[in-house]
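Forum: Protein Structure Q&A
Topic: Joint prediction for protein chains with partners

I've read a bunch of threads here and the consensus seems to be that you should model interacting components together rather than docking separate models afterwards. I'd like to see that in practice. Below is the full input, 1478 residues plus whatever partners are listed. Could one of the regulars post the assembled result?
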Amino acid sequence: MTGNGAGSNGKLMDLLDEPVPGVGTYEDFNTIDWVREKSKDRDRHREITSKSEQSTWDLLHSISDAFSGWLLMLLIGLLSGALAGCIDISAHWLTDLKEGVCLSGFWFNHEHCCWGSNQTTFQERDRCPQWQSWAELLGGSSEGAAAYIVNYLMFMLCALLFSFLAVILVRAFAPYACGSGIPEIKTILSGFIIRGYLGKWTLIIKTITLVLAVSSGLSLGKEGPLVHVACCCANILCHLFTKYRQNEAKRREVLSAAAAVGVSVAFGAPIGGVLFSLEEVSYYFPLKTLWRSFFAALVAAFTLRSINPFGNSRLVLFYVEFHTPWHMVELVPFILLGIFGGLWGALFIRANIAWCRRRKTTRLGHYPVLEVLVVTGITALLSFPNSYTRMSGSELISELFNDCSLLDSSQLCDYNSSENSNTLPDRPAGPGVYTALWQLALALFFKMLVTVVTFGMKVPSGLFIPSMAVGAIAGRLLGVAMEQMALNHHDWLIVKGWCSSGADCITPGLYAMVGAAACLGGVTRMTISLVVIMFELTGGLEYIVPLMAAIMTSKWVADALGREGIYEAHIRLNGYPFLETKEEYGHKTLAQDVMRPRQSDPLLVVLTQEGMSVGEIEGVIADTDYSGFPVVVSQESQRLVGFVLRRDLVISLDNARKRQEGVVSASLVFFLEHVPPQPFSGPPVVKLRGILDLSPFTVTDHTPMAIAVDIFRKLGLRQCLVTHNGLFALQINKYIDPM
Amino acid sequence: MTGNGAGSNGKLMDLLDEPVPGVGTYEDFNTIDWVREKSKDRDRHREITSKSEQSTWDLLHSISDAFSGWLLMLLIGLLSGALAGCIDISAHWLTDLKEGVCLSGFWFNHEHCCWGSNQTTFQERDRCPQWQSWAELLGGSSEGAAAYIVNYLMFMLCALLFSFLAVILVRAFAPYACGSGIPEIKTILSGFIIRGYLGKWTLIIKTITLVLAVSSGLSLGKEGPLVHVACCCANILCHLFTKYRQNEAKRREVLSAAAAVGVSVAFGAPIGGVLFSLEEVSYYFPLKTLWRSFFAALVAAFTLRSINPFGNSRLVLFYVEFHTPWHMVELVPFILLGIFGGLWGALFIRANIAWCRRRKTTRLGHYPVLEVLVVTGITALLSFPNSYTRMSGSELISELFNDCSLLDSSQLCDYNSSENSNTLPDRPAGPGVYTALWQLALALFFKMLVTVVTFGMKVPSGLFIPSMAVGAIAGRLLGVAMEQMALNHHDWLIVKGWCSSGADCITPGLYAMVGAAACLGGVTRMTISLVVIMFELTGGLEYIVPLMAAIMTSKWVADALGREGIYEAHIRLNGYPFLETKEEYGHKTLAQDVMRPRQSDPLLVVLTQEGMSVGEIEGVIADTDYSGFPVVVSQESQRLVGFVLRRDLVISLDNARKRQEGVVSASLVFFLEHVPPQPFSGPPVVKLRGILDLSPFTVTDHTPMAIAVDIFRKLGLRQCLVTHNGLFALQINKYIDPM
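Posted by a regular:
Agreed with the consensus. Here's the joint model:
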């Protein structure tokens, strides 16, 4: 505005050399240009460093800039750890509220309620007068069919209430808060922009509705959504630091770390979390980020531990310590579990995707609230009678992983202790174990079916816990079977070697753990990160080999039936643009075979570096919908000068028309560095050198597509231009269909 | 040879379409072209996959090809684990041989010798009649000054003998076997070729001399060389599989995994090993390799464990389990240890590099054998009187990490037990502890000095153990000081909070461990991998925070004094071409500023796609020493067609002259796809389309160098061509000097 009256060409140019607001930013649902973002950050960093020698203030600024990344990580760790703690505590309380209420204060959960109680014998520790089931509270009696029905009804009522609240809140305030969030985060990390997906409303609503959804007893877990919650925290905290607020690439580095934080608090596995982020979700993960993620993951884990949500100074409910070594022969059942996990993983993905596609395409999708209520109702109805489905997913897993100790009162540990009652091992199963086996078998089928319809509903829903639960049940069943087989057939050659009478030889809990890992591996296709997460849960290198055998088998089996993991399948289902980094590009095509436009199509639209008028360029913009235009020396020579983005061009031309006096449609546009002297009579020229990308990426038309795809992946390009013998030919865009 | 008589143009061309032997291979001390290697492998893989549907045999071939990677990893794990076990056992035995010999069999080490003994009380467990010190054996007495002198002399004699053998063997058979090998492996992994560095002679000699060097009592460790040994195993085993034998890029993936295996067996830390490979040595580390490395590292660890070299079913001597939690206030001494570690790391690197440069430039370098003997002599002379320097590095570390238990007989655990003798904690130090402190202080100075001159001598020498020893001594000293301070000043505000009387509040062993990590971090600048290795040594997440605080401080302090870790410093000292992946390219230059030749230099030599004769091209080759030549449409238009490597060109022209009848200097060379019809009278043409790289990488002259360097790193290019407005301009090579 200041230069308006002057009309001096020189002044106007200076003014135009300043960045036009909007140039260099991105629209929603667009991909970022990693190279440009990293260049921007490099320039910023260089400027700060070079300034730092000028004054103490600048030096301090430079130091604070260097440490702002660490500070940000600390804040993310603290906030995410605290949120995870709150979620754990609230979900625990709400889950117990379905069964009863604490008289000494309704905000106590069952366990806390009975802590102050006098009846502290081991068997009776969860029975205390302060804790009253709904039947006791409403009907006065805790026995009999009537009480059972009252409890049943209250259980269903609470479940329906919770899930109704969850789905309503999600729909009303933050539609992005539903689902697990990992497919979208993968897409965002690969460079896509979805505004609001990691915003404050999503964070608040996802936190609240996650608690409600988990408590409602649906077959879902909190682990995936915790990654989303941590990423929201990170994104919001990024706004505190200019460095991260203004640079999409830097922000994605922080988000990668946040994904690690999410898994770290979900499983109490900081190293596993970092590897999960590296293996599963991240796209660009430099070493510096690796190290910072680890820091953030550790801070979060320690924050969560000091909150101590489970009262066992562990971060998760299902931490275990096994004491019995395993034997080589047991690798056979472990590999069987791996096959089961792989089959189930592949099957689950197909069934779930088919169901989700049906939801997208048929009228089912129009009634999300009703769908949630129906599924919750059925789940609650079927799960109450069976104690293994009535308990929450993590409690179930914890129970199944458990290595029966002498004092254990659970049904699964009801072994007949023979003559001398204090030797634990080598006992025949009692009636409790057989009942438990039946119930578990039913629970297995129930979980398998209900998880398929649950994942993808409009409530926050993670997949880790249900998958692990399925695997853990299968594993425990096989483990108990193996145990009893070994017990009854001590003389079998295969067992003789290591199962001497009187010694503990098979740990059913270990089978449950291996099964859980195998199923989770089949569904998500995680490998090393899953092994490390499980390793951090057991805390012993001893059991890595069984886990690894099962996870590898599971991955191979599942891959043979379908290459995609559940997250990739959902990315494809939702049509997000995502360039898979793990798959090799398998076709022997050259760049000239896939570039657009095809040779038969009309020629690609290009701009020339001089001689085009504002009106002509605006015409080109209006006629086409390309996201950018190559700039060439002249229409005849087609020699490439640079590339200009459509968005930058539109903004700059608008800006020139508004702020630069006298710009009309006939004004000439120059992309040259030195504008030739103009006659004073003509309209003023528009100089757009500033928005021209002078270093567009080019490949020759003979470049194999596999190499071109590699360049796209590794450098994070948006587009690449194809040249033929040095002449600009055509262009390929990022999300070419590889078929 | 078959086509010689025919003279038919068509037949000759078919013949020439076959690959000429030698084309596509590399010379020694050259860098590989990652893009070309990966393309080659992709083509091979595609061919096998497409064939697999044709017959059962091809299908089997395709499956065996897919699993050959896993089989190779298994073999590497088994071989490396077994070798590491042998090295551990032999080194243990030879080290003990310096002090005495076992009468029941000279091949028993001290501990094994006394296993069968009857004197099995705890204190006397290492005294048994079968084990005789040299004084007892030679002089008949184990007491008195004479015996001491005999032992002293034999100790020195053995040390000199071992180190003499080591240096002689290295010089005679495998000069590459000296040093730690990690700098060279980093360089090789980044794409450089050093023939024989990972060959069978290097493997054999390095294994033998490593045992000798470690046993000689020099201040060096076996951890770094174990990485080299594992890489040799991998390289040799690669020859069993065509897929890895013929492809330099694939082989480097295997070598990356082998580096993980090396650390896995050195520290019993498979996950730490994989992260070490990822963070410290690898250049190209796709996820598939990550997963395979982990498998190989696990196999190696389990092989080593089943060999059980230390008799404690652990993989390392210094495995520890602490039981006392640490307190927030202790972070202050931990950070102090970090500062010490950083300072020592930076100082050590400078001193060691200065010393190595002196060795390279002065006459010192001419007498490597003498140097080794003198250093061994001085080390043995000074280390015998002090029990902490007399023991081997890992024994020392093990002793320092040790958390004093009640039964511990070591000098460092000689606490005055007060009234009731069975409470361990809160005891004043006894005279033994004070003696130990003095000896440790002396040992600290001795180790610091002697390590500087030892690392870089012509024997296999690792740096991990000496660095850790220095840090562990410093840490233990600080730990004991803190412990006694807390004991004597129970009323100090700072101590009051957590050191209630009668409770164990400070673990000096933990300080030793933190100190060891800090010093190792300062020297190598490892971060996450070091934390994970230490985590796997202690087996508890509890102690990660102290370790992380110390390692981070150490890295920051050391980085402030000098950016390079010891391996990078040695790479630069030896002048290896290595493009550091961690450093940002900090200058704001454009490609046009660094490309060669400069604008003032004569024009770059180019070939044209048609019209040049064999003689002209040979002239160009003779006149220049460029490693490759751009091919353009014509000298006038300078439009780029492709790039041809000097080596390929020389081989092809030689081949054409030898095998293709009638080729003379006047024969025309065509890089075109379709050779224009030639008059029959002229000499036959040479068609070189096959060796032309049709997809050379190009950037524009306005590309910032930071981006160009990024492209070099990420894609692993050898060279990149620079264009100006689509015209081929000039070229930049990989190892441009960034200044």
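The domain at 328-404+440-573 of chain B is CATH 1.10.3080.10 (Clc chloride channel).
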